[in-house]
């Protein structure tokens, strides 16, 4: 894997940048960043099958986020190694797997069970295990992801300063242990930056991790209760102390507004747990992302049952709606099915509803990232971010006044 920054926004766009991921052995064009990593359960999206992955836009959809925690129970490391790793096991030879020790689909990190020996994780079968760096590296070696993050002691924002400092020290120690145990000497490893809601600890951790010989960084500990107003300062404290030429991946920021905040601070890769939770609830994304084409913020959207970002397709109002989820959307779902059909599938509890919703939501969110990249290239990211947030604020204000 090789990463290069191709365009930095500068000026009003802050630290936003466009980069390119060059994947070794991949025949497609390089993947541009900022980009979305599609969250998976054991290597595949929760509802989208391997065949339907091919309907998503490429090369954007080739990035998959896998959690090693999903493999703690089964299959065993030996079995996965005998198969040949994730790519051969799933038949996804062209895809790019990024492994990080966080299962945002099912559970958040458990800081209280973590100790000096290892991190505490909940397995898919409901057991709680303390995983040592040696066992973690063994699992990674069997999975053979393209990139992987070292072990981290993630803590929520409300822990004491002493516990927060301990998490930084442990994470740095585990990083060194993983580097020593890794047969590839860290050539595909992401160094982990933690520090909770303390700016000084974030800076300290970033400075220390930047001295290690790793090709990129995973920024952990976000989405765990930090103050939204303080988040930009925390992000900047990290990115200002990391090498610009190396890729940056973050977990815990997946809402559109959060992604915009991360991109403004110079983050390159984001997980997509937002899509999973939307799909599970029967919601479909509808927000416009070609907002720089408009001269005002009065977009013509469906205001009946939604918040100008998403609509709830379980609602009765869509029972006879024969239009696609989003007009002119080129995804498989919108090209072949209607809101009424998905409403029916949801209300009779057919799994196909979630399959079609996840295809659309993933396709739509990939389009959002593509629009952000174009805005950065054109030096208009700050305008893009302002218009997107302002359109949401105007709608929410109108909804409050009407109620």
From TrEMBL:
Q: Which UniProt keywords apply?
A: Cytoplasm, Metal-binding, tRNA processing, Zinc
Name the source's superkingdom: Eukaryota
Q: Which InterPro entries match?
A: QTRTD1, Queuine_tRNA-ribosyltrfase, TGT-like_sf, tRNA_ribo_trans-like
Cofactor binding, per record = Binds 1 zinc ion per subunit.
**GO MF term set:** metal ion binding; tRNA-guanosine(34) queuine transglycosylase activity
Residues bound to Zn(2+): 329, 331, 334, 360
Q: Which GO terms describe its cellular component?
A: cytoplasm
Q: Where is the tRNA-guanine(15) transglycosylase-like domain?
A: 16-392
Compartments, record wording: Cytoplasm
Signal sequence residues: none
Q: Which Pfam family, an example, fits this chain? A: TGT
Specify where it is mainly localized: cytoplasm
Instruction: Give the cofactors, semicolon-separated.
Output: Zn(2+)
Describe its function.
Non-catalytic subunit of the queuine tRNA-ribosyltransferase (TGT) that catalyzes the base-exchange of a guanine (G) residue with queuine (Q) at position 34 (anticodon wobble position) in tRNAs with GU(N) anticodons (tRNA-Asp, -Asn, -His and -Tyr), resulting in the hypermodified nucleoside queuosine (7-(((4,5-cis-dihydroxy-2-cyclopenten-1-yl)amino)methyl)-7-deazaguanosine).
Q: Which PANTHER family match?
A: QUEUINE TRNA-RIBOSYLTRANSFERASE ACCESSORY SUBUNIT 2 (PTHR46064)
Q: How does it assemble?
A: Heterodimer of a catalytic subunit and an accessory subunit.
UniProt record similarity statement: Belongs to the queuine tRNA-ribosyltransferase family. QTRT2 subfamily.
Designated name of the protein:
Queuine tRNA-ribosyltransferase accessory subunit 2
Q: Source species, please? A: Musa troglodytarum
């Amino acid at each position: 894997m090789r990463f290069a920054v191709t365009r930095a926004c500068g000026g009003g766009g802050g630290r936003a940048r466009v980069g390119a991921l060059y994947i070794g052995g991949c025949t497609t064009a390089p993947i541009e960043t900022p980009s979305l990593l599609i969250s998976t359960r054991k290597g595949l999206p929760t509802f989208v099958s391997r065949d339907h992955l091919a309907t998503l836009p490429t090369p954007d959809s080739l990035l998959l986020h896998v959690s090693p925690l999903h493999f703690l129970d089964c299959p065993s490391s030996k079995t996965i190694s005998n198969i040949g790793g994730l790519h051969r096991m799933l038949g996804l030879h062209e895809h790019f797997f990024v492994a990080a020790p966080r299962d945002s689909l099912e559970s958040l990190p458990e800081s209280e069970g973590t100790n000096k020996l290892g991190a505490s994780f909940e397995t898919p079968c409901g057991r709680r295990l303390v995983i040592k760096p040696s066992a973690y590296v063994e699992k990674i070696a069997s999975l053979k992801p393209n990139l992987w993050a070292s072990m981290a002691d993630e803590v929520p924002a409300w822990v004491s300063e002493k516990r927060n400092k301990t998490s930084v020290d442990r994470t740095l120690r585990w990083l060194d242990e993983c580097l020593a145990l890794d047969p590839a000497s860290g050539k595909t490893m992401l160094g982990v930056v933690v520090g909770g809601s303390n700016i000084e600890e974030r800076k300290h951790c970033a400075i220390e991790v930047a001295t290690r010989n790793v090709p990129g960084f995973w920024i952990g500990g976000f989405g765990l209760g930090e103050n939204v107003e303080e988040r930009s300062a925390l992000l900047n404290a990290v990115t200002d102390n990391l090498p610009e030429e190396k890729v940056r991946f973050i977990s815990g920021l997946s809402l559109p507004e959060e992604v915009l905040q991360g991109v403004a601070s110079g983050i390159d890769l984001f997980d997509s747990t937002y899509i999973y939770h939307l799909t599970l609830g029967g919601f479909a994304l509808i927000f416009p992302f070609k907002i720089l084409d408009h001269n005002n913020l009065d977009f013509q959207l469906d205001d009946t049952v939604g918040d100008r970002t998403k609509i709830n397709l379980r609602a009765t109002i869509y029972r006879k709606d024969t239009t696609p989820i989003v007009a002119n959307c080129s995804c498989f779902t919108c090209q072949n099915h209607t809101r009424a059909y998905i409403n029916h599938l949801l209300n009779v509890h057919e799994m196909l509803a979630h399959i079609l919703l996840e295809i659309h939501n993933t396709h739509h969110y990939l389009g959002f990232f593509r629009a952000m990249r174009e805005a950065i290239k054109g030096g208009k990211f700050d305008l893009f971010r302002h218009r997107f947030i302002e359109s949401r604020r105007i709608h929410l204000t109108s909804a409050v006044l009407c109620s």
